[in-house]
Write a structure and sequence with these properties.
Elements (H helix, E strand, L loop, with lengths): L9 E7 L6 H17 L6 E8 L1 H12 L7 E10 L4 E10 H11 L3 H16 L7 H17 L21
Parallel strand pairs: 1-2, 2-4
Antiparallel strand pairs: 3-4
Length: about 170
Amino acid sequence: MKRRRERPALSVLTLRIGSPPRGPARARLVGVLTAAARLAGAPAGAHVDVVWADDAEMKRLNKRHTGRGRVTDVLAFAEDMLDPELGVKRLGEVVCNLDLARRSAHANGNRYEAEAILYATHGVVHLLGGDDHTPAGRRSMRRIELAALAERGLEVRGGEWENARVRTGGNT
């Protein structure tokens, strides 16, 4: 009897201003986002677009969509619709600021890749209903984000992440 292959919790289309993650970095990104989607209760096969941007683009998007003309780390645009081409639920788009990820990683002693993946993970958890406007909501989001990173052997420290830190056996 032939076994049906289960759909992953999330499929990811990765775009970037500049060069997108390739090889092992892309595999870690997809793995962490898939883990976060599973932990946050995403339907099987859900789809999200991840867009990598710089400070200028993030400031422009933040001003356009929130009215705040300042640089930010992550913007999440929920869509929650069935994608007719893919035949899966489309959660939306996550835009991550790689310039800020680079600065934050350096300031907090984190790997740049882990910081960038954290931003994407944060956006995915927002798309799945995460709300960081209350202390309880923030803690809940952090647990999901850090557990997803830990599943792939990544960790972040410093800043707002220090209190919610999940220790792992090693870095990749």
